[in-house]
Amino acid sequence: MDDDAKPSAIPSTPRVSPPVVEVQDLVKVYPGGTRAVDGISFAVTAGEFLGFLGPNGAGKTTTIRILATLLRPTSGTARVGGLDVVADAAAVRRRVGFAMQTVAIDALSTGRENLELIGRLHRVPTAQLRTRVDELLELMGLAEVAARRAGSYSGGMRRRLDLASALVHRPEVLFLDEPTEGLDPQSRSALWAELERINRTGTTMILTTHYMEEADRLCRRLAIIDAGRIAVEGSPIDLKRSVGADSVVLRLAGAGEGDGDKDGAGYGLAAAQDAVVRLLADFVPLAGLERTPVGVALGVPDAERAIPDLMRRLDSGGIHIDGLSMTSPSLDDVFLHYTGSRIRTEEADRPIDLGWWG
Amino acid sequence: MIGLAYEGYYLGRRTLRRFYRVPANPISVVLYPLIQLFVFSQLFKDIVQLPGFGGGTSYLAYLAPGQITFTVFFAVSWAGTNLLVDYRNGYLDKLRVTPINRYSILVGELVPLFVSCSIMAGAILVLSVLLGASIATGLPGAVAILVLGGLFGVAWAGTSFVPALLTKSEQAAGTLSLLFFPVAFMSTAFVPPALMPEWLRIVNDWNPITFVIEAMRALMTTGFDWPAIGRALVAIAALGVVLHGATLWAFRRLTN
To answer: What is the pTM of this model?
Structure first.
């Protein structure tokens, strides 16, 4: 399985500057014998937004915790800014920010006190600390509640405060472990916009997620991770293209009339379908054609670009199209293709176990 | 060293916020010793007539130093659970990804206990004066009592930190620190050694709490008894070295 999943199958991002994060043959075996990370290698250049996509237990969190100096690898090396995460842990800590899966803020301190404490521990000079904290509170939309205890904050506010505290010292690299876990849709998209903005200012971002939508939206490069290994990496678009053509579903005129007068409509539809088949016989991008009860379904690689041409062709042949829908392979299809299993978000999205009474 | 002081200072301010921003904390710390001081001083008012007391002092004055150690005990008995909460909700990890000396986290937990214990001891001291006790050495003596109380609290806190860090259970931390009760009852907190059975007197001779109480009692009833203060400091230091040696070991285990 690993052979056909080599990264070389996907056009990789061109690398000009030296990598900011460099991981070589990383392995982590926990005391119980669990091989959480089983030989991971990758490199990230400055300003990139890399995502680890995989189900819970795939090794994403372990990898990111090693990078953030919280765990020691069993073997292999990890470097951030050229510094080894084990040997030069203190220097690495000065350069990285880490927003963990669980929001870790002090509920009895105010929002401002939370940020100031982390800033102090990072030795942000007093003069700069005040402006930096003001700036972050403003950016995260927490300025008005800055003097309130963080314990009174909503889930979204806690997340934003936690994220702000990872940014007080202006890290070069920001690690995010499931940054939107447990957020409602509005807070989630607001946080996504925030993360994109942080990335635009030049911060290198490495994120783990099991939400395909999140990976798709944020990450310019994805590493699909499963059972402690990277199955494949590439941009979301390239990955999706690599697993198959887009599908274009056409609803043909006359199909809808079938309700009352089956014979007449059926004939009309069949004729239209035949005409489509004739017209598209030499349409080069076509990767498949299938009749549906209301029209045809086409397999078209890179459908986005092929559709105008396709439409002109059908139009010139006098085909009337009532409706068109287009779907691309999802990241779940990518995941299935390269790992042989689904991400199973339903399971991952399950709320916390409430125990025997839940 | 400078790093420990700097980081410990800011972390310590957070520790104090955590204690004082929950009003139930300072109140519950003072409440029990205060009740004990009030009720026992009334109930056993005439106990001082017994020969072992040597006469003269009121039982209230005799009782007060012991109740100060009780106060200090209540102020630190749950101290170890703060770290446990941080460990569990990820805050400890958050601190560990900042470029600090990890022992600053312990400094930030322990040093504020000195402040808290002194303040709480001060509250019970003021209340016992209001109830009728007096301090023979005046204000300097009162300050010395609070310093002894604060130091004792920092040292005794090990009985909360060690089980908390080793078992990662709040229950264990609170329960094991209840060890204070038997140790306190086997000290001169309530009665002088002359009234104790032989075996208890031997235990009492080696009881660190007795040394602390006796130094405080001298400050309250007679004067600056330097040898007694010296013995108290040695007892506190011995307690601190043993308990916090173990705390340090448990903390390393937790953060590795």
So the answer is: 0.82
